Amino acid sequence: MKKKHQVTRQEVSRRLVSDQYFESGHWILTIWQSILAVLAWLVVILPFVWLALPFVMPEWAVHLNFRTYFEELFTFKFLHWFLLIAVGLVTIFSVSLTIRNNHRFKHLISKEVLHDETRLVVRRRVLGDFYDERFGVQEFRESVRFYSIKAVQNLEVSTVKDLYQKYEVAL
Amino acid sequence: MIKMFHTGLPALDIFLTIVLLILITYPILGGFTWFVGVICYKLVFKHRQPDWIEIPEEIEPLITIMIPVHNEEVVIAKTINYLMTQLNYHNYEVLVLDDGSTDTTPEILSALMTTYPNLRVVHIEKNKGKAHAFDIGVGFAKGKLILSNDADTVPEPDALWK
């Protein structure tokens, strides 16, 4: 058995991704984009700092004439509880679904065939016959290197659906 | 409890408020769900996929990489060159479905066909969209498995055997 060479994620990104920011010889671009990135993150973070100021440093807020209103405090407290309850519900939901999945894997997916084998065989035959008729036999279709589909050979949107319905193996 | 609706029916008010709150906070709730989901997968789920098992070259199943293209002269040559030379897999073919390109894509493809024997092209004369191209393509694909690939994306080198 010939051993396959496994490629690491780092190697893949080196091969497939090129970014002048990370390459040497572009230091002006690197500095400029770093400054922009820091500024952009400040725009994201500062509103949160600003709104959190009266809570974590009340005397600073007074010093800066930052008035807090009842509605703001109330909204904060309300959201705090709302999101806390949401985390609880999401956790219960996710854990119970995972337990259900464990059960399904153990008793269903690893033991039973979940698709209808006979329908599949019929569908395969129906489609095969259709392709044979329209584009040539299977051996030809699978070996031809260039084939041009004429406009009249194009499939209708419902071609496959209609075929399945006709042979009583509807989708 | 904040009420954002005042219909006169308290129960309805609460229900509508909760629906509205979920709508407002859904990116946050989505983030929670994602985070908790990962923890559940790591700690609670018992059927996690084990590490990749290598397939010996002799028993590799034939894979058809199906690429629907429409006016992709800018990228198609690069993509096909990559697929033909960079993948850690041997038993595969590339089937390009040229969905009525009007630029130089057909010429590029025929030039590439002389280089790569496992490149096949189905030319659809009248453009009819990606889904239609796939419907045609499955009739021409030789592989046991089909990988759908776009003209401007490439899989990682180990993707096929994985």
Please give a structural write-up:
- The complex is a heterodimer of chains A (171) and B (162).
- Chain A has 171 residues and is an all-alpha fold.
- Chain A has 3 domains: 1-62, no CATH class; 69-114; 117-166, no CATH class.
- Chain A contains 7 helices and 1 strand.
- Chain A starts with 8 loop residues before the first helix and ends in a 5-residue tail after the last helix.
- Chain B is built from 4 helices and 4 strands.
- Chain B is elongated.
- Chains A and B meet through helix 1, helix 4, helix 5, helix 6 and strand 1 of A and helix 1, strand 3 and helix 4 of B.
Q: Low-confidence parts of chain A, pLDDT < 50 over ≥5 residues?
A: none
Strand content of chain B: 15-25%
Going by helix content, strand content and strand pairing, the class of chain A is: mainly alpha
Task: Please report the number of helical segments of chain B.
Answer: 4
Major β-sheet strand ordering of chain B: 3-2-1-4
The largest interface is: A-B, 50 and 45 residues
Rounded mean pLDDT of chain B is 93
Could you give a short account of the major beta sheet of chain B?
Answer: 4 strands, parallel
End-to-end Cα distance of chain A: 43 Å
Q: Evaluate the radius of gyration of chain B.
A: 24 Å
| N to C succession of SSEs of chain B | HEHEHEHE
What string gives the helices and strands of chain A in order? HHHHHHEH
Domain module tally of chain A: 3
CATH superfamily of the largest domain in chain B: Spore Coat Polysaccharide Biosynthesis Protein SpsA, Chain A
Give the helix proportion of chain B (percent range).
Answer: 40-55%
CATH topology of the largest domain in chain B: Spore Coat Polysaccharide Biosynthesis Protein SpsA, Chain A
Please supply descriptive tags for the structure shown above.
heterodimer; A: 171 residues; mainly alpha; 3 domains; 7 helices; B: 162 residues; alpha/beta; Spore Coat Polysaccharide Biosynthesis Protein SpsA, Chain A; 4-stranded parallel β-sheet; 4 helices; 41% helix
